Amino acid sequence: MNDFVFYSPTKFVFGRDAEVNCGSLVKEFGGNRVLIHYGGGSVVRSGLLDRVKKSLDDSSVTWFELGGVHPNPLDDLVYTGIELCRKNNIDFILAVGGGSTIDSSKAIAAGVPYDGDFWDFYCGKAAPQQALPVGTVLTIAAAGSEGSGDSVITKKDTMAKRGASGECLRPKFSVMNPALTQTLPPYQTACGITDIMAHVFERYFTKTPDVETTDRLCEAVLLAMINEAPKVIADPNDYEARANIMWAGMVAHNNIVGSGRDQDWNSHGIEHELSALYDCAHGAGLAVIMPAWMTYVMPHGVMRFAQAAVRIWGCEMDFAHPERTAAAGIKAFRKFLASIGMPINFEQLGAKVEDIPKLVESFGIGDGKTGGFVSLGRDDIAAIYKIAAEATL
Length: 393
Ligand code: NZQ
Ligand code: ZN
What we know:
With 393 residues, the protein is of the alpha/beta class. It has helices at residues 22-28, 42-45, 48-58, 75-87, 99-111, 186-204, 212-234, 239-251, 266-278, 282-297, 302-311, 322-339, 346-349, 356-363, 378-390, and strands at 11-14, 33-38, 62-66, 92-97, 134-138, 150-155, 160-165, 173-176. The strands form two sheets. Strands 1-8-5-4-2-3 form a six-stranded parallel sheet, sandwiched between helices. Strands 6-7 form a two-stranded antiparallel ribbon. It starts with 10 loop residues before the first strand and ends with a helix. Residues 143, 195, 198-199, 268, 282 line the site of zinc ion.
């Protein structure tokens, strides 16, 4: 196991009606003038936004609001938010929504005290060192941004989708009421489940030896998703299944399952080019890319893929041909994704094979290599897009 520091100071308030605590939580973490940030309107339609405002009013917190966060959030609204905060002396950002809203909130939070352009944090020019405190009211189990120090933003003029990380970006608190996710359409629910599983797989495929504890934690989260996903697709109001999935979304990405191990993250990078170019849901893009990445890199780690196949997908171990077991596991993953309504190839996602050179270019590694499990160059990335384009069940 590698040496590591694990520090996850977010306060999670989980359960039915948890959003009534927003006002007191903002106060607890020093907020008096709050920007409520939200997306395209689901929180207005569900009545959640009004309940959040009432909770803030009840705690005598002054609030301002900025809606309109686009899924795959864009930089232009971040600039608007930074200006709004500076003009009104806002001291706390409350994200009400999903990963996109939370990520946009984190970008605003880091941008307000920063002298330069907030995009510096996303293009690698600077690392966020300080930020306004952020709280979240989560409405979709997916990105794990409610517990992570990460944020992903797309630059509108170039459509470059890039991430920034920093401990100062971790939310101070996250309100997690599984009932809030009951209004999600099945497709969006399945996208979230796929993203959760991908966050675990990015960590599970490692070359770090002797990581049995985190291996088993990863497997537990994946098995729980395989168990809970069909329930919630069949009955969107299944509170208990929603609750299990919501907590899994946090556990999958606050790095408790990834501590002490090298991680890969190429599938995420390769996917981000798809959601930037086609504006598809991140989870749907991952459903197409992750099994393709697995297929391509499997020969570099046959025994780890065979372990996944046996422990996660219940495949029988073929000791004479472990690569067959490994391949059966990847096939089972793809079948599972299709069973919950996810696309499995370019056509189903709405992507085009002729765009592959553009996607590779935009991936932006030049002649370099990237990836923690298997280090890949641009030809490898192109080959993975090709597998993804042509995948069948
Ligand atoms: O915008 P509204 O109207 O709220 O609608 C949203 C949006 O259309 C809708 N939605 C959310 N909660 C709902 C709901 N509809 C009905 N009922 C509800 N309860 O769902 C759509 C998707 O929302 P979004 O916030 O985009 O989803 P998600 O949480 O999957 O976030 C995706 C973004 O997170 C990034 C992705 O790249 C993508 O940009 N990621 C962020 C990470 C992080 N910060 O740690 C890690 C992830 O790997 C990921 O890259
Ligand atoms: Zn993700």
